From TrEMBL:
Binds 1 potassium ion per subunit. This is tRNA modification GTPase MnmE. It comes from Mesomycoplasma molare. Transmembrane segments: none annotated. NCBIfam families: mnmE_trmE_thdF (TIGR00450), small_GTP (TIGR00231). It is an enzyme of class 3 (hydrolase). InterPro entries: G_TrmE (IPR031168), GTP-bd (IPR006073), GTP-bd_TrmE_N (IPR018948), GTPase_MnmE (IPR004520), MnmE_dom2 (IPR027368), MnmE_helical (IPR025867), P-loop_NTPase (IPR027417), Small_GTP-bd (IPR005225). It is found in: Cytoplasm. (6S)-5-formyl-5,6,7,8-tetrahydrofolate binds at R22, E79, K118, K442. GTP binds at residues 225-230, 244-250, 269-272.
Length: 442
């Protein structure tokens, strides 16, 4: 049986209007009755009273009662709504601890909700993602997991795989039954191929959506004095990097982050690329090329008042496998009529960078966070990938002529990975599926 745990659910490190102390466990009602003078409520009832330590009044409170299993945690739970001072909140916490509860570990309330069958791991991790969300888009993506559609989609994948495994198992263990579909490698390959393709699409969609959390890596590269530091400051809307007329001011990588239309970006200003004049500058230039390799987007900043040279060509060549955006700076020094229509011109000095921002965000504007196939949690996505590779291996084995009774090992591994997205795999479910889908015992 679970013990009784308690914690300040509203955060107890700052003074606030109201604080919530949550207590759950088999004796939670009895513990509260020792310190609360008001009425013990019925399920989902709020009652008024005082928290007292003997004759000493600690606070005037409202208590919300959750009796039984029909609540967030799935067991008797009490929430004390107190005034939000740090001192009185912690006094209430200490009093509850002294009367039979222990401090909850991080995430333990959600863990109990999972163990009590009130949520699966998809929702539990979505709650954690929501708490730590830093952008509106991250918040929306997390909330979408609350509607259970992603969990149902995973269940659908599991069921399709179970049916394949069940058919193979029955052919191995009950070959004498006439109502069992006879399988050969040729009949099995299309079934597994269809499932493999579905997982492949899910992985592709999910990896593109992961940037909502991971952020898009941008490197600003170019020759000295092209305005890279000015552009960094303009994108961040702050004076992050030192800007002077002297060439080679930036010797090391300057990193920061910003959010554009809900998408997080990690941006790096790099040393100007030219023939190095000393050892320190040479190291800085080498690091600039490393940033080109490690970034998703390369902003090649070009001084539009000067000619393109071999160093510009080198930057373009190094960026050929990336999203490469050539940008012509110092637009304010040019004749407007001379600007080429298809090129991106900016004035970083004057914060005239809107067309560049539109280009940066262009690739990421069509992320569909409402698609139930969006697996944005990294643990869940790693399990999807693991299942995909197991299914892919089983398909290759079948095409090589290996019998299904050997291939089933890979399929079982894929099944375990998919089930572990929502919770712990239980091999009894394989047997349940066999007897549910085939008339073996009639």
């Amino acid at each position: 049986m679970f013990d009784n745990i308690v914690a300040i659910s509203s955060g107890g490190k700052v003074n606030q209007a109201i604080s919530i102390i949550r207590l759950t466990g088999p004796d939670s009602f009895n513990i509260i009755k020792k310190v609360f003078t008001g009425k013990v409520g019925k399920d989902k009832e709020i009652t008024y009273g005082w928290i007292k330590n003997g004759d000493e009044v600690i606070d005037e409170v409202l208590v919300l009662w959750f009796e039984g299993k029909n609540n967030f945690i799935g067991e008797n739970t009490v929430e004390v709504n107190a005034h939000g001072g740090i001192v009185n909140t912690n006094l209430i916490l200490e009093l509850i601890l002294a009367n039979g509860a222990r401090m909850a570990e991080p995430g333990e309330f959600s863990r109990r909700a999972f163990l009590n069958g009130k949520m699966d791991l998809v929702k539990a991790e979505a709650i954690n993602d929501l708490i730590h969300a830093k952008t509106t888009l991250q918040t929306k993506a997390s909330i979408k997991k609350f509607d259970n559609k992603t969990s149902l989609y995973i269940d659908n994948l599991i069921q399709k795989l179970l049916e394949i495994i069940g058919i193979i198992e029955v052919n191995i263990d009950y070959p004498e039954y006439d109502d069992v579909e006879i399988l050969t490698n040729e009949t099995l390959i299309p079934k597994i191929t269809k499932l493999k393709n579905e997982l492949e699409e899910t992985i592709d969609l999910s990896e593109r959506s992961r940037i909502i959390y991971d952020g898009v890596k941008i490197a600003i590269v170019g020759k000295p004095n092209a305005g890279k530091s000015s552009l960094l400051n303009a994108l961040l809307n702050e004076e992050k990097a030192i800007v002077t007329d002297e060439e080679g001011t930036t010797r090391d990588v300057v990193e920061s982050s910003f959010i554009l239309k809900g998408i997080p970006f990690v941006i790096k200003d790099t040393a100007g690329i030219r023939e190095a004049s000393n050892k320190v500058e040479k190291i800085g230039i080498e690091r600039s090329f490393i940033q080109i390799e490690e970034s998703d987007i390369i902003i090649h900043l070009i001084d539009s008042t000067k000619k393109i040279d071999s160093f510009d060509e080198l930057i373009k060549e190094k960026s050929k496998n990336k999203t490469y955006i050539p940008v012509y700076n110092k637009k304010d020094l040019l004749n407007i009529s001379s600007l080429e229509k298809d090129l991106i011109y900016i004035s970083a000095k004057n914060n005239d960078i809107e067309n560049l921002e539109n280009k940066i965000i262009e690739k990421y504007q069509n992320i569909d966070i409402n698609d139930e196939r969006n697996i944005t949690n990294i643990r869940q996505l790693s399990l999807i990938k693991s299942a995909y590779f197991s299914i892919k291996n089983s398909l290759s084995s079948l095409k090589d002529g290996i019998e299904p009774d050997i291939v089933i090992v890979d399929l079982r591994k894929a099944w375990e990975d998919l089930v572990n997205i929502r919770g712990k795999a239980d091999n009894e479910k394989l047997l349940d599926s066999m007897f549910k889908n085939f008339c073996l015992g009639k």
